[in-house]
Design goal:
2 domains; mainly alpha; 0% strand; 22 helices; globular
């Protein structure tokens, strides 16, 4: 039997075995103990009531995500492929530990055969193995296979626990600014259904969301005069940037360009002297950022992103289980000029699509209601009065500036390259909290316009 046949035969997955069910139940109980222990240690903080609720909410949608891939996608899709690659890496460790670490610390090369794997270890999905950013997710997942009996559901629950804690750290950071009520921030960072569904299990989206949250927490602690940064903060920053680069390189632009705008706003506020100096500073930052965007559109990173989106779109198009709900921006020119021309339509798609009439299916209906909520928040922001005052409030707070540009740039990338709604709702999920934070910043007045307030925990 040739290797290609072995790869195809090895796709017969077994879910919900007795061992998998028992391990998942015990694992979930342990995670619940950890969650409620943390809540008990912080029982004097009233807002901690949201912490266990956030984990249960996230776990529910991660479990739904697992069932969706197992039942609706019939054991297909990238999440199953990531997990399968992790299991095959685990098998490889017990057969040849040196080969395992070689795979972990080097990019895979698939030229029709897999050197390290054989019929004993099993073969990873060739599509996952042949794409370094995808197989990186399997490498991360392989770490958890050593103490989860290789169970898909239990590993997914562990990812949901890590994602909950990442979201919680960012929730606490933004809460310290006193710009929003706890309920509004909890909605934004902890209780968005699509964010929990797509950014909670074994996926690129989960790893990107976790890295984004911890990057912002660490970078703002480093930049804050109220904090004494530690080596741990710097390690966290570089690890998060590295992970984002390995999984989706364009995320470096999504976080670093907004950070430049936010930090320039802070410098403008604290800089002594005439307005001319402040104008020159802002002009320099704008030129630097726009130049970076233009360079990016011509770079291999942009090409790799579009290529990645094309791979996902091809998979979604050819797999009937994904459906065929598409949108068309009318883009035919993929030069930098064409990409800029498509920006308005791309951003609207990233923010608000699928519209409610485009979401009349089981897999998209929640996204349609989320879009309705975003339309309502946008309408209220624009037409409930004092618009200039609201805009000034955003301009005067660095985190709101950062949130606006993160949402804007990520919406552009998501809207421009997704094509299928099934891809769009995944790519856009991480921008939703930042967009909500901006649109609701005027709901609760505060005199706190500092970059960082004291840590509330």
């Amino acid at each position: 039997m040739n290797e290609t046949a072995l790869i195809l035969l090895d796709r017969n997955f077994q879910f919900f075995t007795p061992l998998d069910i028992i391990a998942s139940l015990f694992g979930f109980i342990i995670l619940l103990i950890l969650v409620y222990s943390k809540k008990r240690r912080n029982s004097e903080l009233e807002y901690y009531k949201y912490y266990p609720r956030a984990f249960l909410f996230k776990s529910f949608f991660v479990f739904a995500n697992c069932l969706f891939y197992i039942i609706v996608y019939k054991g297909g899709g990238d999440s199953i492929g990531f997990w399968d690659g992790a299991v095959k890496l685990n098998n490889l460790f017990w057969v040849d530990p040196f080969a395992y670490f070689k795979e972990i610390f080097s990019d895979p090369y698939y030229g029709g055969h897999m050197v390290s794997f054989n019929s004993v270890t099993g073969f990873p999905d060739a599509r996952i193995y042949g794409e370094p950013s995808s197989f990186f997710v399997s490498k991360v997942g392989s770490i958890f296979t050593f103490f989860t009996f290789k169970g898909y559901l239990l590993i997914s629950l562990i990812f949901s626990y890590i994602a909950t804690n990442a979201s919680w750290k960012l929730f606490e950071l933004v809460r310290s600014y006193k710009l929003h009520s706890d309920r509004t921030l909890a909605l934004a960072f902890l209780f968005i259904p699509s964010l929990s569904f797509w950014c909670g299990g074994i996926s690129k989206d989960s790893i990107i969301w976790i890295s984004l949250c911890y990057f912002l927490v660490h970078i703002y602690k480093v930049l804050s005069p109220e904090y004494k940064s530690t080596m741990l903060n710097w390690i966290g920053i570089f690890m998060c940037l590295y992970v984002m680069y390995r999984v989706r390189p364009f995320m470096l632009l999504v976080v670093l360009a907004p950070l430049l705008f936010a930090y320039s706003a802070r410098l403008k506020r604290i800089m002594p002297g005439a307005n001319l100096k402040k104008f020159i500073l802002q002009l320099f930052i704008v030129i630097l950022t726009v130049g970076s965007l233009l360079i990016f559109t011509q770079s291999s990173v942009a090409d790799s992103y579009i290529e990645e989106a094309a791979v996902i779109n091809d998979d979604m198009t050819n797999n009937k289980n994904y459906g065929s709900n598409k949108y068309d921006l009318g883009v035919t020119d993929y030069s930098s000029t064409g990409m800029l021309k498509a920006a308005p339509a791309s951003i609207i798609a990233g923010f608000y699509r699928p519209f409610i009439w485009e979401s009349l299916s089981v897999s998209l209906i929640l996204n349609g209601f989320e879009s309705l909520l975003l339309f309502y928040l946008t309408f209220k922001f624009l037409f409930s009065g004092a618009l200039l005052k609201k805009i000034k409030r955003i301009r005067n707070h660095e985190f709101l500036i950062l949130s606006f540009f993160i949402a804007l740039i990520l919406a552009y990338f998501a809207g421009f390259t997704s094509i299928l709604f099934g891809v769009l709702v995944r790519f856009k999920a991480p921008l939703l909290p930042f967009l909500i934070v901006v649109l609701t910043a005027h709901w609760q007045q505060s005199d706190n316009n500092n970059l960082i307030a004291e840590d509330s925990h």
